[in-house]
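We emphasize that the prediction below concerns an isolated chain of 269 residues; any contacts that depend on oligomerization or on bound cofactors are therefore not represented. The input was used exactly as deposited, without trimming of termini.
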Amino acid sequence: MTDNSTSPEFISLEKAANMKDGTRITFIPGLQAIYAEALKNICYVKQIKITRVLHPFMGTDKETGSDRQAELYALTSQTSLPTMLHNEERPRNVWIEQLALAEGIGSQDSLSLIPKNFKERADMFGLCAIVLGEDGLVWNMRILSDSPLARKYGYSDEASTKAPNKIAEIIKLLDKKLKAQEERGSKYLIGDYLSAVDIYWATVSMTVLPASLEIMPKTKQNEGMLLAFEGISKIPQIAEATSELILSHRDYILKTYCETPAILGGNPV
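Result of the prediction step, given as a token string:
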């Protein structure tokens, strides 16, 4: 569960690191950083109360000349967003470890997001990997144009040129999966019930298929990001891959199971 106010509190990284109890996740106020937003939605479904922590920006502090993410690196040996802290356990920085932790600490009354059936579990983690993993949808979305973040993901002119086709291929694969599921009477990507891949894909899809303001509100901090996502959705290969089924699944999952409109903090527009 998350704070239902429009201006949630964010605590400092130092304070979060010194806490002995509770689940803490790093965010940037006003921005729907996509892995952080997905983890927030996972925790919402699992009924996990989270404390929001200020994630330090990339780059160098203009006043001190120091690396703004040095403290985060000292604590976690990495700088990715989000970092998940729980009680006095080690930090979790990778989506698959964050999901395992959330599944383990979630309310007993919450929905299970990892299938008990191993065939369905294998299918689910396979789909998660092409959405979230290396050379997956998010990865290729981030190398569509050159930037410091894109360089972190191995940007090159050749990789960027190939990215739209890879993104489109992943969307088409998910669309095909949803059509097969619809034919057997299921609204979900795996089996007959909600699983983590529904949450992850519904959240991540907003990077290439913009959602309505009823789902993702506009802030002064995310205006540019929303505009960029709109531009990505108009890339011919991606626009051609989009279907009504993909969009309806996304809206159904987010509106039925997740916190909508998303609560980001920051400055609303």
